[in-house]
Every structure is written in structure tokens, then in C-alpha cells.
Amino acid sequence: MTILSGGSKGMVYFTKMFSYETYRKVKVHNDTINCMLIDENILFTSGFEGYIKLTVIFVLSSLFKTSSSCRFSMDMMSQ
Predict the structure, then answer these.
(1) Would you call 40 helix, strand, or coil by DSSP?
(2) 30-55: per-residue pLDDT in tens?
(3) Is residue 2 exposed (0-12), middle (13-18) or buried (19+ Cβ within 10 Å)?
(4) Nearest CA to 13 among 40, 45, 41?
(5) CA–CA gap between residue 32 and residue 16 (Å, rounded)
(6) In the chain, where do the E strands start and end?
């Protein structure tokens, strides 16, 4: 099993649940990731720079492979 977590440098970390070994890092944002959601094989992340990004996650042979995602501009301050 894998735990996904976001960091202050815009990175998403893939960590093995029982050994706590981080085996993959992916740069998704330029600033802190403040929210993450996984739906099926899509990872949604948001950061303080005002973007929501989607990253497609493929599971092959129990390894996570990611492909770069679409970027949606969103004015988070207008709400």
C-alpha cells in the first residue's frame, strides 16, 4: 500500500505504508500543496499559487507512474 502526501515545495511524495520508505517524488506545484484528492487514477492537487492540477496516475506492476497533467487557473481569492 502507498501513502501520497503533499509538501511545502510543491512535491507529491509516494511512501510505502509499513516501511515509510519514500520511493517517488513528483514536482506538481511551485508552492505549498494545500489540498489533495484521489478519484480512481486521477490525483487532484491545489496549491497557494492559485491552480488546481490533475495528474493521471497509472498503476503498473505495483509501481506508480505519473504523467503530467492539465493545469486550470482559478482565482481562489474571488470566492
Answers:
(1) coil
(2) 999 999 999 888 899 998 888 899 88
(3) middle
(4) 45
(5) 22
(6) 2-6, 11-16, 22-27, 33-39, 42-47, 51-60, 63-67, 71-73
Q: Is 1 helix (H, G, I), strand (E, B) or coil?
A: coil
The label of the residue with cell 499559487 reads 49
Mean residue pLDDT of the chain comes to 78
Which residues lie closer than 8 Å to 71 by C-beta, 6 or more apart?
51, 53
> Which residue, among 13, 71, 6, has the nearest Cα to 33 in the 3D structure?
6
Return all residues near 72 (Cβ < 8 A) that are at least 6 apart: 51, 52, 53, 54
| Residue 43, phi then psi, degrees to nearest 5 | -100, 120
Highest mean pLDDT pick, 16-20, 37-41, 58-62: 16-20
